[in-house]
Write a structure and sequence with these properties.
Elements (H helix, E strand, L loop, with lengths): L1 H10 L3 E4 L7 H14 L6 E4 L1 E3 L2 E2 L11 H7 L2 H18 L3 E2 L24 H17 L6 E4 L20 H7 L2 H8 L4 E4 L17 H11 L5 E3 L6 H4 L4 H11 L10 H13 L3
Parallel strand pairs: 1-2, 2-5, 6-7, 7-8
Antiparallel strand pairs: 3-4
Length: 283
């Protein structure tokens, strides 16, 4: 709604993410993104979408309908992955987006939540990393910011963080062997952004969502892996966060952990709460 968009612009948000509910046609989306830019002439907006392929694709026919990334993983073809990434990004750029929250680099395990499922490139960490890096190279070659998600990995949890806070049972050595390699490959390939996971990793010495963990987001991702791009939170409106506290408090904790960009995708009231909390703690 136009009044909500106006309020968001006045709050000073750094960008907008579109979902299927915001999409009628390519022409309508192009016009909407142009209007958003015009409403915020004082800043360069991040205009984002989850265009992974399969069931997580907000833009569909008459644009290309991409298969789930599990099919790309089954082909195990880096050139094909690069071509898919580039073609996907060319469409997004033509419409007016500059960020694609893809690809998913969570490694598929027997326990993997269906919320990930066929969004994963597969079961082999090396293959997921290699194909994910190729997808990233293709996406970013067309001038779109790619995003490796969800660090440090959803692959070994059965719970869905949209509704509850999952706990990963792996010890640190197992995590480093099975779930870290794809993200290391993405960083080596020059990925410009990473998205966090709302997952607890006791084996890494943390007992809160990784999104809120300085050890995971700064000590491991920034310092150890040398990631120097943009770090986005997953949606702070998800049950994994909201069932245990306020979204404003979580936003402050995420920033303190090292997160740069906060996704708040549900309600205007939640965005207002986040902005108020950040301003109150800005000193």
């Amino acid at each position: 709604q136009s009044d909500e968009v106006t309020h968001l612009a006045e709050l000073g948000v750094g960008g907008f993410i579109l979902f299927a509910r915001n999409v009628d046609s390519p022409l309508q989306v192009h016009g909407l993104l142009a209007d958003l830019r015009q409403m915020c002439p004082d800043r360069e907006l991040l205009l984002a979408v989850d265009q992974e392929g399969g069931r997580v694709a907000r833009l569909r026919a008459p644009l290309t309908v991409w298969p789930p990334m599990s099919e790309l993983g089954a082909h195990n073809d880096e050139r094909l992955a690069r071509d898919v990434g580039r073609a996907m990004a060319v469409e997004l750029r033509a419409i007016g987006f500059n960020v694609n929250f893809a690809p998913v680099l969570d490694v598929l395990c027997e326990q993997t939540t269906i919320a990930i499922g066929d969004r994963s490139l597969g079961k082999d960490p090396e293959c997921v990393g290699r194909l994910g890096a190729a997808l990233i190279t293709g996406i970013e070659s067309a001038g779109i910011l790619a995003c490796a998600k969800h660090f440090p990995g959803h692959g070994h949890v059965a719970e869905d963080s949209h509704h509850e806070l999952p706990t990963c049972p792996l010890d640190e050595a197992s995590w480093r062997r099975d779930h870290l390699p794809p993200f290391a490959a993405a960083i080596a390939a020059g990925v410009k952004s990473v998205m966090t996971a709302h997952v607890v990793y006791p084996g890494l010495g943390i007992h809160t969502a990784a999104t809120l963990s300085h050890r995971v987001m700064t000590e491991i991702l920034r310092d150890e892996l040398s990631f120097d791009g943009v770090l986005f939170s997953d949606d702070l409106g998800m049950g994994a966060i909201t069932r245990s506290g306020g979204v404003g408090e979580a936003a402050v904790e995420a920033v303190r952990a090292g997160v740069d960009g906060l996704l708040v995708c549900r309600h205007l009231a939640a965005v207002t709460e986040v902005v108020s909390a950040l301003r109150a703690n800005a000193n």
